[in-house]
């Protein structure tokens, strides 16, 4: 700061004199500040990286490069240390602990200030020099300016020579107050101890008050490094004079990043692949996005290698993608330059969702990734050949469903955000337009997208063009086993006759060869084109041919690699009518064994438009006549049943017709039984199904429509549906199998679904070979899905038929049995309720030894007893049901296993037959009017293991084995009309005990005799066989008669004198029931 100094006015002599001004002294501003260095350790990346290719020109402090291209530096006093991030890299010197030692010695010219360092672990020192004032005053005019003081810092080890630790130093400038300067100095690391540091003043000491340049050695700080290598971390260590910045600068580095795994035959610098690849890798730096992605998947440190085995990645598919990425294309600047199609220059600084990152990175090279079985593969949107073909003959329902992208999702402008290297990789936005769409739509429809890892304007422009030329149509359809062949990313051909307007696809007939294809229908449009087929191994084959419209066979040359199978799909693409190409984006498996396929339109010419700007030319894929279609003609009706999923079947009425020319959709109207005309829907296939169809007259009206919605003449036709009222078919394979007196009636499975779901198999029996179903005795009912039932073994005729869920019965099937019921081996007892029927009857009464269903009328209501005497027992009609419970439960005293059989003789008849006239119950067939329908008679049983009884629930009686103590029986009868009657003549149940054996071996017999008890006791005393061991001559077995009974026996062993003995043993066998 300059100040104006005003001097005194001079005096005169003798009352007069002259006056003048004095020049003010000028002091220069202070130019020195206390000086410190800042050291920064910057971790720039996981290692190993390829380095900083431009050295200090690739280092930036607050966006200013450390060094300019011309070699000059923008910052001074900077030291740089670099580590690439290897596993065994040297540590980066950085101060950890510090210990300051005060020196406080003034430096004098030629006299060194020396200090010793005895700690062997010290790595560096910081020497602090100060000056209380540094200035020079002009003695002539009083101006004050700066001064200069030079000094040298040296070091030595032990008795060795002094060596400079840095270049000679100088403090040059002006300061009027004490100012300190610090210098960081590395010490020699070898040669012995102790180590010494000395400071020597090189400038002569001032002897004038006008020159102030005294210097002091204030302190020496001992520094110990933190010896951290930071393995696998690329680092830059920087030391810089702090006075150049007001705060720690923001640093950036232009690096060639992590070395990634690349194919062993690949040169990343030239982007060439030499020779075939053997599947092995090497680690080098590359920005090919395919190999960057692979490295992220497989690296165990910063990638997914710890979770994903490299053998699960389709590296060979990635090899093809990597080659496509390296193809040179125009760089987008219009200067004739070229660049790789895709590169990936990206920095990942935060933890991210793994699957999202995987998909973001794969998007760099326009691909999707997915699991194909157990392999992770990537499929790129790039030119590729068709892999499979579909037409109306090999898709479910012959139908393809097309969807267009919504108008708000179609764009004519793309704004692509990318990292611009000419602006220090800050984000820039590249605008890409399709002027023809802007003019057509009359508005801007913009898509904003961020190009992941993009540092090329050309790549950003290609991404924008790719978005604007993206396909705007999708298709979905379902197939059978064929749907398992294409994978996401595969290109498929579709020959849809509905859209094309001609049938140029279908299935081959039997007899097709490698040179001749037999078509399943006449070719819809001929000409010169390409015929494609799927061969037996699933491969796609095509040949150029010339064929006429209407041809049913095609000659191909050269021959196909192998003959296609019968029903293999085929398609024909001509110049006048091409097939549609789509790229598969998704496949899902349905519960019914079908596959749903989703695909988007695929245009192979798009890629030349994107990369090289070559205009796309579309081939025609439709010759549809836009006029109104003709009538569909004859309607064909068919019926079927289906499972509703609720345990019941329902009826389906299907209607189909021939497809007329120009018809794209069909309007369906229907008049159901008892209803009016109603609109159903519009369908694209020449058929329609009506579920839950009811029986009765149906009328269906079909109106064809063109692609523009023009309607043709309607076709109307009527049909009478049977629906669920159709009778089931007769049972087949009916047979009677008898094993150990147990009879099993078996038959073949019924074909009708409404019998299997909710239906039944009804079985009846009659001893009369002339008996019909209506008077035969119902004996059991099996579920509709069954193929057998256990029945009582009886001589006579078994009758069976299927009954559907609506109660409609099918034809009767009969089987005759002449088997004689085997006599019970151990009859325990026989319960004969007839002819007395002393039990409890409900809606039944005993008449002449017959248990007869009671009528509902009262005797007093008979108008004329004499005129109706023969019908008094049936006046008023039969009761809807009757029951008879046996006179008393049967108690076997103990819990036994027993086999039960029953005999029931009864008549089910219509009131046209009088009971008084019945001589033979088995011969009752129905004399007047219809025989009984729906009548049944069944025996029920309940049991208890304890007394007093704790009864089980009632359950239908079946001939077989039971285990209980108490048994109770009830006969139940049901009729469905009041003119039907039930009369029971014989009712009995036989208890048969199975044979039983009790065995004992080597049982000692005491002198007081051995008592053996049976648990439970036999029903009667069993046969007993005894064998003794250890008898002496004359010994014998003695079983007193009084001790031998159903509960057990007692045995003695006596000698010849009749005296009881011990020390002997017996075996016994007791056999009875």
Explain the overall architecture.
The protein has 1073 residues and is mainly β. The chain has 8 domains: 95-225, Jelly Rolls (Sandwich); 259-380, no CATH class; 406-468, Phage tail proteins - 2 layer sandwich fold (2-Layer Sandwich); 495-612; 636-725, Immunoglobulin-like (Sandwich); 735-817, Sandwich (Immunoglobulin-like), CATH 2.60.40.10; 827-992, Sandwich (Jelly Rolls), CATH 2.60.120; 997-1072, Immunoglobulin-like, CATH 2.60.40. The radius of gyration is 55 Å and the shape is flat. Mean pLDDT is 85; it is low at 1-20, 865-872 and 913-931. The chain is built from 8 helices and 72 strands. The longest helix has 12 residues, at 457-468. It starts with 36 loop residues before the first strand and ends with a strand.
Structural classification:
mainly beta
Number of domains: 8
- Largest sheet descriptor: 10 strands, antiparallel
Taking the alpha carbons of the first and last residues, their distance comes to 136 Å
The first-level CATH class of the largest domain is given as Mainly Beta
User: Uncertain runs with pLDDT below 50, 5 residues or more?
Assistant: 1-20, 865-872, 913-931
Specify Rg, calculated over alpha carbons: 55 Å
Average of the residue pLDDT scores: 85
Strand portion = 35-45%
Count of individual beta strands: 72
Total of DSSP H or I helical runs spanning 4+ residues: 8
**Overall outline:** flat
Which second-level CATH architecture of the largest domain applies? Sandwich
What fold name stands as the CATH topology of the largest domain?
Jelly Rolls
Helix content: under 10%
């Amino acid at each position: 700061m300059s100040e104006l100094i005003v001097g005194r006015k001079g005096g005169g002599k003798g009352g007069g004199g002259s006056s003048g001004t004095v020049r003010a002294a000028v002091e220069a501003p202070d130019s020195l500040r206390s000086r410190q260095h800042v050291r920064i350790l910057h971790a720039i990346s996981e290692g190993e990286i390829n380095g900083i290719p431009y050295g200090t020109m690739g280092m930036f402090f607050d966006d200013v490069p450390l060094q300019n291209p011309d070699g000059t530096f923008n910052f001074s006093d900077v030291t740089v240390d670099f580590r690439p991030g290897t596993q065994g890299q040297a540590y980066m010197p950085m101060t950890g602990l510090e210990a300051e030692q005060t020196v406080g010695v003034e430096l004098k010219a030629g006299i060194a200030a020396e200090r010793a360092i005895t700690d062997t672990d010290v790595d560096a020192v910081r020497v602090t020099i100060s000056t209380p004032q540094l200035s020079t005053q002009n003695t002539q005019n009083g101006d004050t300016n700066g001064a200069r003081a030079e000094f040298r810092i040296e070091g030595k080890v032990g008795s060795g020579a002094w060596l400079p630790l840095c270049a000679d130093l100088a403090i040059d400038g002006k300061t009027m107050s004490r100012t300190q300067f610090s210098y960081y100095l590395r010490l020699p690391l070898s040669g012995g101890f102790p180590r010494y540091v000395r400071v020597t003043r090189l400038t002569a000491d001032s002897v004038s008050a006008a020159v102030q340049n005294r210097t002091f050695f204030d302190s020496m700080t001992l520094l110990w490094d933190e010896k951290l290598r930071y393995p696998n971390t690329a680092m830059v260590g920087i030391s810089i004079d702090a006075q150049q910045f007001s705060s720690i600068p923001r640093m950036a580095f232009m690096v060639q990043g992590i070395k990634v795994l690349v194919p062993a035959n690949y040169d990343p610098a030239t982007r060439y692949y030499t020779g075939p690849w053997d599947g092995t890798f090497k680690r080098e730096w590359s920005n090919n996005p395919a190999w960057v992605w692979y490295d992220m998947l497989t690296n165990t440190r910063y990638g997914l290698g710890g979770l994903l085995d490299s053998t699960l990645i389709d590296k060979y598919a990635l090899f093809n993608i990597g080659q496509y990425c390296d193809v040179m294309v125009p760089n987008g600047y219009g200067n004739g330059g070229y660049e790789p199609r895709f590169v990936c220059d990206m920095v990942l600084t935060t933890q991210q969702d793994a699957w999202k990152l995987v998909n973001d990175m794969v998007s760099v090279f326009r691909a999707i990734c997915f699991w194909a079985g157990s392999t992770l593969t990537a499929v790129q949107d790039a030119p590729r050949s068709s892999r499979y073909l579909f037409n109306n003959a090999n898709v479910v329902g012959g139908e393809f469903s097309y969807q267009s992208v919504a108008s708000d999702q179609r764009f004519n402008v793309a704004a692509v955000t990318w990292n611009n290297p000419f602006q220090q990789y800050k984000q820039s936005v590249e605008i890409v337009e399709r002027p023809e769409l802007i003019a057509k739509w009359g508005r801007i429809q913009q898509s904003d997208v961020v190009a992941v890892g993009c540092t090329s304007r050309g790549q950003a422009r290609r991404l924008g063009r790719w978005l604007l030329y993206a396909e705007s149509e999708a298709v979905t359809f379902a197939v059978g086993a064929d749907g398992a062949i294409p994978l996401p990313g595969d290109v498929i051909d579709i020959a849809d006759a509905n859209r094309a307007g001609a049938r140029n696809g279908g299935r081959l007939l039997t007899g097709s060869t490698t040179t001749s294809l037999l078509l399943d229908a006449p070719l819809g449009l001929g000409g010169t084109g390409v015929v494609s087929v799927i061969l037996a191994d699933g491969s796609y084959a095509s040949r150029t041919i010339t064929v006429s419209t209407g041809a049913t066979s095609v000659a191909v040359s050269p021959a196909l690699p192998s003959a296609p199978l019968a029903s293999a799909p085929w398609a024909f693409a001509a110049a006048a009518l091409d097939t549609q190409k789509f790229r598969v984006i998704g496949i899902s498996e349905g519960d019914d064994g079908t596959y749903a396929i989703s695909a988007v339109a695929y245009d192979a010419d798009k890629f030349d438009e994107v990369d090289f700007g070559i205009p796309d030319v579309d081939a025609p894929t439709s010759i549809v006549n836009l006029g109104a279609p003709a009538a569909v003609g004859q309607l064909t009706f068919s019926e079927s049943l289906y499972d509703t999923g609720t345990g019941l079947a329902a009826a389906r009425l299907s209607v189909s017709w021939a497809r007329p020319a120009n018809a794209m959709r069909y309007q369906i109207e229907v008049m159901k039984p008892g209803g009016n005309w109603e609109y159903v829907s519009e369908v694209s296939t020449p058929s329609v199904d009506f579920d839950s169809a009811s029986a009765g007259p149906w009328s269906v009206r079909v109106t064809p429509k063109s692609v523009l919605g023009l309607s043709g003449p309607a076709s109307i036709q009527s049909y009478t549906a049977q629906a669920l009222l159709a009778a089931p078919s007769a049972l087949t394979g009916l047979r009677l199998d008898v094993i150990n007196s147990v009879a099993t009636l078996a038959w073949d499975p019924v074909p009708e679904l409404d019998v299997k779901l909710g239906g039944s198999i009804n079985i009846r029996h009659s001893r009369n070979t002339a008996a019909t179903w209506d008077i035969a005795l119902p004996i059991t009912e099996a579920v509709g899905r069954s193929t057998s039932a256990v029945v009582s073994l009886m001589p006579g005729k078994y009758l069976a038929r299927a009954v559907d869920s609506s109660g409609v019965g099918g034809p009767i099937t009969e089987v005759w049995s002449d088997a004689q019921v085997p006599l019970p081996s151990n009859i325990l007892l026989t319960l004969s309720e007839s002819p007395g029927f002393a039990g409890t009857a409900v809606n039944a009464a005993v008449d002449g030894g017959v248990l007869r269903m009671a009528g509902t009328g009262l005797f007093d209501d008979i108008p004329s007893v004499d005129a109706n005497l023969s019908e008094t027992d049936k006046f008023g009609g039969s009761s809807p049901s009757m029951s008879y419970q046996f006179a008393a439960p049967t108690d076997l005293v103990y819990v036994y296993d027993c086999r039960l059989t029953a005999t029931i003789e009864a008549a089910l008849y219509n009131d046209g037959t009088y009971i008084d006239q019945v001589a033979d119950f088995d011969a009752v067939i129905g004399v007047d009017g219809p025989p009984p329908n729906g009548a049944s008679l069944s025996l029920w049983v309940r049991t208890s293991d304890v007394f007093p009884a704790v009864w089980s629930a009632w359950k239908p009686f079946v001939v077989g084995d039971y285990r209980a103590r108490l048994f109770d029986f009830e006969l139940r009868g049901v009729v469905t009309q009041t003119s039907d009657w039930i009369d029971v003549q014989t009712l009995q149940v036989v208890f048969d005990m199975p044979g039983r054996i009790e065995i004992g071996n080597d049982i000692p017999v005491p002198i007081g005799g051995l008592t053996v008890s049976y648990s439970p006791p036999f029903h009667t005393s069993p046969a007993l066989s005894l064998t003794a061991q250890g008898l002496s001559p004359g010994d014998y077995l003695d079983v007193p008669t009084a001790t031998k009974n159903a509960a057990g026996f007692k045995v003695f062993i006596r000698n010849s004198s009749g005296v009881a003995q011990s020390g002997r043993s017996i075996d016994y066998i007791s056999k009875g029931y």
